[in-house]
Design a protein that fits this description.
The complex is a heterodimer. Chain A contains no helices and eleven strands. By secondary structure, chain A is an all-beta fold. The radius of gyration of chain A is 14 Å and the shape is globular. Chain B is built from no helices and eleven strands. The radius of gyration of chain B is 13 Å and the shape is globular. Chain B starts with a strand and ends with a strand. The chains are: A mainly beta, B mainly beta. The interface between A and B is medium-sized, with 26 and 28 residues.
Amino acid sequence: DQQVKQNSPSLSVQEGRISILNCDYTNSMFDYFLWYKKYPAEGPTFLISISSIKDKNEDGRFTVFLNKSAKHLSLHIVPSQPGDSAVYFCAAADAGGTSYGKLTFGQGTILTVHP
Amino acid sequence: ETGVTQTPRHLVMGMTNKKSLKCEQHLGHNAMYWYKQSAKKPLELMFVYSLEERVENNSVPSRFSPECPNSSHLFLHLHTLQPEDSALYLCASSRGTGYEQYFGPGTRLTVT
C-alpha cells in the first residue's frame, strides 16, 4: 500500500517553460513534505520542503504548493533549465509523531528539460 | 572528503557470502539512515540511528545487520542474502532525526 504516489513516471518540458511535478498522499497524519532531486550515480539531494501549516513555499525558481484537503502537493520549476533534468522524489513525514526522521517516498518522476 | 560517502560503490556477492557496506558522513550530523531502493520501487527506510543508538528498525530481515560505532560511521553487514535483495543501498545523515537528509551516492548490490 503506497502512501505517497507520483503518478507520472516522466515529464518532458521545453527550456524556459514551467515544469509541474505532482504528488498525492493517502496518510492524513503526514504533515511535512519534501522534494528531493537525484542525478544519475548520485544520491538524492534535498530541494525544498513545506509544512502543513502553509500552502506554499518558494525558493528561487522552485515553488511547492500543498492542498491538504486534496492530499496533493506539486513542485513548480520556473523557468525550467536543462540542468534541472533529473529524477524528482516527493517525500512525506509525520513530524508530529515519534517517527525519528522517517520519510515515506514516492516512486519518482523523471524530468527532462529540452534546450 | 565532504558530504556523505559510501563504499563500495558496486558489489556483487553470492548468497553464501558475508560482506559489509560502509557509510561515512563529514557533516557533523548525529543521525544516520540506511535506505533500500529496488527497481521501480520507492526508497524504503531500513534503519535509523540517532546518537549511535538504533531508534528505528523497519521490519528488516535479520540477514541485514546494521552497526553504528560512532556518529560519523554506519555499516550494513550482509549475510546469506537472496537475489531479491539486489538493489541500490543508500546511506543518509541529518542533524537530529530531521527530515532534511543528506544522502550518499549509494552502493549498487547484486546478489547472484
